Amino acid sequence: MPGSDQPDPGRATELGMPPGARSVGSAGPGSGDVPPELEAVVARWNPQGTALLKAVRSAVAASRVALIGPDDANTTLLRTELARFEPRIDLTEPMSEVGAAVESTLPTGGAPAAVALILLDAGSTLGTDTLRLVRRLRADGIRILLAMNGIHAYGDWRSVRAHNLELLAAQGGADLDIVPVSARLAAAARTGGDAALLDRSGLTALHAELTASAAGAVDAGDGRLAALTARVLAETRERIVAQVATLRSGAEPARWREERATLLAGRDGGRATAMSTLRGQLHLARVDLMTEVGGQVRALHVAARTELDRLRPADLGDYPDRLQQAVSELTVVVDHGIDRRLAELATRLDGVDSGDVASAHRRRDPAPRVGPDPEPRHRGVEDHLMIALGASAGVGLGRLLVSPLALVPALDVASIPVTLLLGACVAWWVVRARRQVADRAHVRQWVSDALVNVKAQLEQRVATAVVEAETELADRVVRASATRIIDTDRRVAELEARIRRAAAEQPGQLAACERDIATIDRYI
Description:
Helices cover 65% and strands 5% of the residues. By secondary structure, it is mainly α.
């Protein structure tokens, strides 16, 4: 600033300003009267500071404020952080006993304090004792401020605060408010020099409330108001300077460009990766399902052969129906396996709904048919040969059995009919047994041929289901990736607009910041 703008030290002291402070006429910070243009700058950059200055000009705290809350580390840290603000709030020692607080708002006796600060737990709702305390203090004409300390440790503190306000309104305290604060966030903001974090901690808002509520007025000539105004202006200037540094560094546009490059790199919405994963998983599912079908058909074949060996000859004619029922049951098992495997496949794909794709959209064909019933077995040369062999064996067996009768000459002729009868019986038994064995072998061969056809139909069923699932899942992948592409394009367009707007507005923003800095520099 030019040297002519330097004020006279004696004049600054007369105005209630510390030596070296600047002023313009009588509207400097030392006079307690902030010009409108300077107040507008502070309001834009430091809203909490504006509220504090207004509170100081109206009524600031020269009296003590009774502190009612637990005497723990959080309360101690809160008092420590509040003590760093100007004007300093004179807090009493914390009173954790509600009964003692009702009797007096000052633990050391004397006149009761005009303001009481009640600390609430951010993790629990108001109790009956606290509500009774609020009613007693309000009945005694004491102004009450409620602060919810420790909001950094509770994610649901907003719902707890809303419930507490409802309880207060039910007790006639609808005009009361609860200020959410966190002394730990304030300490972290002070350590890191983060003004935005300090505002989020709520300490500045609580200090402004305490300043406005406390009784008494500050003598403008004691320098406290001048110091407070100078500190608010200095903080505001620091915020503007930090914004200027941010604008000139181009950190935000650089971050936006990096984000845009990342979005453009994945602009396809993961379609290529999803389609490659889909093809591999479908191929693996087809191989696994084909293997399962082959194993299940082989197990059914073994069970059918075992059942045929134990089946009575009279029941062979009904066996095709029994085999058809077994094939229908096997088809249900195969369908369940297909649905389960395709549903698992759908859940593994990114961007695809995890619903039951197979059961909702797969075509349901009837169970495979085992084919026409086995044709009647035709008699061949083997049957005639077995008749001849059976008769020959029967006659030989008959002669062997009646050979003792040949020793008696009178019975020799009678043995011939017996021999022939025994030969016919043996021949009939041999032919019957041969026919049963041939019929069983005929049905067994028919079962083998039928199950080969069933296996082919079940494998076709698997292939059809996999192809249908591939069509639908590929469509879902395309639609999901198209949605992500549209969203990516929208975000890229927003980032490009931000980058262009930042480039266009940066000179004007820098000029505005410099004007605000110059405005502050004229008064400090």
